[in-house]
């Protein structure tokens, strides 16, 4: 039994908890392997950045429940995440595990938002409590379980999609593709649980139950993800919300200590080739190129008028 006597967040039975990754494990591994420094920056629940070798951990789940979530995570990582990141994603399988993955990510996001007492978690408490019960019963494959009608979506975000928002925030691409964050959003009468996993995003509706203009992205209760092309993305508020997230990531990064920044700089100097070939380096260059082309377009327009 743990010191606080707290129960596993999923089964609510066992109190023999293990330290769980707050974000899926494959994500930490991916960010670490593709970063310039071999380290990554995680933002803790108080919004403070810490340079760690691993993603933020805390005691959340028992062994059994950790295994339940791992099954869907491993499937998602192998069949969608890594192929997408390597530009090798050809087909998307129609598979229940994609829905289970999205639900499990949003459930963790919800727990974190409850923990930090996010204002929207308090405001939507009634609805979120109901959703939490549904998501938990779904993952635990409870007898007589019936799926609800609140939809879950997976968006595969790349630089082309993000470039639309870049003119408003030069750091947007880096912030979205290189960070992971959980959040709650409410804008234009839509409230949803949000997770950004290095550009792969999970959206779980709080209100209304369904997300308009999102064809080809749903994984729960039905799967249209990969079945409908082209997928719908970019409904009202989506980019505004991403910009808000990007600003928060920038704020967190600017709070990095001088020592932490020095360490990143040193590794750039020590092994510039590795740093340049890393995902961080590639995205940095992409960002510079995009900025340049936007500036060229703006100059052209100025010359015309
Ligand atoms: Zn459990």
- Principal-axes geometry comes out as globular
Radius of gyration: 20 Å
Helix content estimate: 40-55%
The unique ligands bound to this protein are: zinc ion
Structural class category: alpha+beta
Order of helical and strand elements:
EHEEEHHHHEHHEEEEHHHH
Number of domains: 1
**Poorly predicted parts:** none
Strand order of the largest sheet: 6-7-8-5-9
Largest sheet: 5 strands, antiparallel
Average pLDDT score:
80
Number of helical elements? 11
**Alpha-carbon distance between the two ends:** 72 Å
Total number of beta strands: 9
Estimate the strand proportion: 15-25%
Concise synopsis of the structure shown:
With about 300 residues, the protein is α+β, with helices and mostly antiparallel strands.
Topology:
Elements: E1 17-21, H1 25-33, E2 40-43, E3 49-52, E4 57-62, H2 63-85, H3 96-115, H4 119-123, H5 125-139, E5 152-156, H6 159-166, H7 172-177, E6 180-187, E7 190-197, E8 200-207, E9 218-220, H8 238-254, H9 258-270, H10 272-277, H11 279-304
Antiparallel strand pairs: 1-4, 2-3, 5-8, 5-9, 6-7, 7-8
Helix pairs in contact: 2-3, 3-5
Bound molecules: zinc ion.
Describe the protein in words:
By secondary structure, the chain is of the alpha+beta class. The chain has one domain. It has eleven helices and nine strands. The strands form three sheets. It has a five-stranded antiparallel sheet with strand order 6-7-8-5-9, covered by helices on one side. A two-stranded antiparallel ribbon has the order 1-4. A two-stranded antiparallel ribbon has the order 2-3. The radius of gyration is 20 Å and the shape is globular. The mean pLDDT is 80. The structure holds zinc ion (ZN).
């Amino acid at each position: 039994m743990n010191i606080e006597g707290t129960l596993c967040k999923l089964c609510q039975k066992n109190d023999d908890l293990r330290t769980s990754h707050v974000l899926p494990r494959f994500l930490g591994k991916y960010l670490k392997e593709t970063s310039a420094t071999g380290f990554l920056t995680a933002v803790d629940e108080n919004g403070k950045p810490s340079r760690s070798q691993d993603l933020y951990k805390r005691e959340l789940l028992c062994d059994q429940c950790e295994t339940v979530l791992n099954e869907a995570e491993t499937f998602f990582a192998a069949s969608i995440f890594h192929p997408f990141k390597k530009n090798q994603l050809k087909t998307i399988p129609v598979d229940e595990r994609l829905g289970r993955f999205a639900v499990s990510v949003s459930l963790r996001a919800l727990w974190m938002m409850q923990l930090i007492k996010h204002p929207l978690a308090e405001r939507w408490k009634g609805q979120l409590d109901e959703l939490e019960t549904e998501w938990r019963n779904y993952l635990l494959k409870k007898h007589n379980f019936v799926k609800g009608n609140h939809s879950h979506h997976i968006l595969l975000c790349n630089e082309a999609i993000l470039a639309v928002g870049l003119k408003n925030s030069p750091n947007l691409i880096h912030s979205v593709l290189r960070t992971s964050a959980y959040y709650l959003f409410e804008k234009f009468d839509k409230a949803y649980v949000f997770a950004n996993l290095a550009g792969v995003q999970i959206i779980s509706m709080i209100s209304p139950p369904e997300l308009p203009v999102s064809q080809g992205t749903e994984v729960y209760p039905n799967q249209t993800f990969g079945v409908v092309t082209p997928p719908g993305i970019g409904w009202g508020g989506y980019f505004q919300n991403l910009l808000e997230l990007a600003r928060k990531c920038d704020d967190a990064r600017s709070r990095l200590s001088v020592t932490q920044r020095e360490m990143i700089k040193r590794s750039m100097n020590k092994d510039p080739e590795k740093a340049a070939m890393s995902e961080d380096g590639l995205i940095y260059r992409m960002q510079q190129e995009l900025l340049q082309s936007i500036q060229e377009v703006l100059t052209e327009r100025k010359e015309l008028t």
